[in-house]
Amino acid sequence: MKRVLAVVLLGFGIGASAVMANVNDEIRARIQPVGEVCVQGEDCGDAAAAASETASSDSGSSARSGSEVYDAVCTACHTTGAAGAPVIGNADDWAPRVDQGMETLMDHAINGFNAMPAKGGCATCPDEEIEAAVEHIVAESK
Q1: DSSP-assigned beta bridge partners for residue 113
Q2: CB atoms within 10 A of CB 92
Q3: pLDDT by residue (tens digit) across 75-84?
Q4: Contacts of 93 (CB under 8 A, 6+ apart)
Q5: Distance CA 105, CA 4 (A)
Q6: DSSP string across 15-79
Q7: Which residues lie below 8 Å from residue 65, measured CB to CB, with a gap of 6+?
């Protein structure tokens, strides 16, 4: 009887250790680092090459058209008139603003004005894209 009990306990012990090893592997997989820090001047292997390729492809990309920027950034407010925004296509809304001149419109679009945040809230948009969006809106609102 003692031998049977010893064999059963030994079997449970081996099975439990295999399960614990699997659980430990799962925990290690869940808490492993998602990246590594690569300091300039150190040999970073493939990470440095990938970063430079990404930077070069980003710099070579062309700017979006005014219509694309409007659709992505401006449409939420300038289609509905939210927070007093002039509605695209409404000449009465835009006439007093256009009368101030394109330079003023560009300045307000890039730096923000009243309830409108700088660049319409698109911090990553270059000034050229915001200017293209303003030109698009004005053209559609005459």
Answers
A1: 116
A2: 9
A3: 989 999 998 9
A4: 81, 86, 87, 141
A5: 89
A6: HHHHHHHHHHHHHHHHHS-S-----TTS--THHHHHHHHHHHHHHTSPPPPHHHHIIIIIHHHHT
A7: 132, 136
Closest CA to 133 of 69, 64, 81, 61: 69
Distance in angstroms (rounded) separating the CA atoms of residues 112 and 40: 36
pTM for the model stands at: 0.57
Distances (CA, A) of 16 to 9, 11, 27: 10, 8, 16
What pLDDT score does 127 carry?
93
The answer to whether 122 touches 130, Cβ cutoff 8 Å, is: yes
Q: pLDDT of 50-69, one tens digit each?
A: 555 555 455 556 789 999 99
Which residue is associated with the tokens 């820090």?
37
**What is the residue whose two structure tokens read 């915001």?**
130
Residue 63 to residue 75: CA distance in whole angstroms: 18
Q: CA 21 to CA 108: how far, in whole Å? A: 62
